[in-house]
Write a structure and sequence with these properties.
Layout: H1 5-18, H2 23-29, H3 35-42, H4 51-61, H5 65-69, E1 77-78, E2 81-82, H6 87-94, H7 101-110, H8 117-125, H9 136-152
Length: 153
């Protein structure tokens, strides 16, 4: 079976972005593969990557090889930023989030206001007065403050 190199590259890049991984971080988590090779894969320049390579990338992204070979879903975008709108990808990303943040993001998604992946990563790394927020309302406060500050700049 021939692999569509461009579609595979787009899918890897999409999943990497949703998980907030840099190219280098994914390359390292995928068994220490060369970052330059992974970049070529994402650009669709590798015509037939091996099963071992695809398995390592899939494991690092917490998906199956079959998930990698699916066509990248059209990204819902806001000024070029992918949103967490695909339920399966959202569930995988949410599995590692701090308490309360997951609840806040689910509420936003249910209200048809999915939060950009880059914002989710920013929120997940924040602390408020030296502590990580635990309540949904605290995450909403941080989200509102973050979005207000970005709109003003």
């Amino acid at each position: 079976m021939a692999v569509d190199a461009r579609a595979l590259g787009a899918r890897i890049a999409q999943l990497r972005d949703l998980r907030g991984l840099s190219l280098g971080a994914l390359a390292e988590q995928a068994g220490g593969m060369a970052k330059s090779y992974l970049a070529k894969l994402e650009r669709g320049e590798v015509e037939n990557p091996g099963l071992r390579t695809l398995s390592a990338i899939a494991k690092a992204l917490d998906v199956t090889v079959a998930d990698l070979l699916k066509k990248a879903e059209p990204a819902t975008t806001t000024k070029g930023k992918a949103l967490l709108s695909n339920q399966a990808d959202l569930e995988r990303v949410l599995s590692a989030l701090p308490p309360g943040l997951e609840e806040f993001l689910e509420e936003m998604t249910a209200a048809n206001q999915p939060v950009p992946a880059t914002t989710v990563r920013a929120l997940a790394s924040l602390e408020l007065r030296g502590k990580r927020p635990r309540q949904k309302e605290d995450w909403r406060f941080l989200y509102d403050a973050l979005t207000r500050s970005v709109r003003r700049s």
